[in-house]
Task: inverse folding
């Protein structure tokens, strides 16, 4: 898998994309996603849903073999060729041949080692996945963006 920020000049509004599968197919989908983000600025979820709809229904796109992970400061999503846009319940996502190993390791670390940062969890989970999966190696890129904290319920603020 690989990742690249879609806008590296400023940290505001940055979207990070990781993928697995055919690189050419992933970049074709990334171009389409950038178009959707231009069409729906600041609406990553809607942009991903629109991409997934096109991916599933377009005769050319349907043949593309890739999976995408997409994240901004508000949400992290997986987009599949089946037309699914998935948001994990715990914020943990992985893609590729070692993805299941990485997710399992990251979840175990998240629940059992509370002082680890998200970046430390990701790096350790990738190391564990690369030790378990022959198709996963220790050559990866980590992109870090700060997530916005979800605001507390309005009733809690009033108290």
Result:
């Amino acid at each position: 898998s690989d990742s690249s920020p879609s806008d590296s000049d400023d940290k505001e509004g940055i979207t990070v994309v990781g993928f697995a599968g055919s690189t050419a197919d992933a970049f074709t989908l990334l171009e389409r996603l950038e178009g959707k983000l231009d069409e729906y600025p600041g609406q990553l979820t809607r942009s991903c849903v629109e991409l997934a709809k096109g991916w599933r229904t377009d005769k050319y796109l349907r043949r593309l073999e890739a999976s995408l992970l997409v994240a901004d400061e508000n949400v992290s999503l997986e987009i599949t060729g089946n037309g699914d846009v998935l948001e994990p319940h715990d914020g943990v996502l992985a893609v590729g041949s070692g993805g299941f190993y990485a997710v399992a390791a990251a979840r175990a670390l998240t629940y059992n080692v509370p002082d680890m940062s998200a970046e430390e969890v990701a790096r350790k989970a990738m190391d564990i996945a690369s030790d378990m999966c022959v198709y996963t190696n220790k050559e990866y890129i980590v992109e870090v963006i700060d997530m916005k904290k979800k605001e507390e319920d309005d009733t809690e603020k009033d108290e």
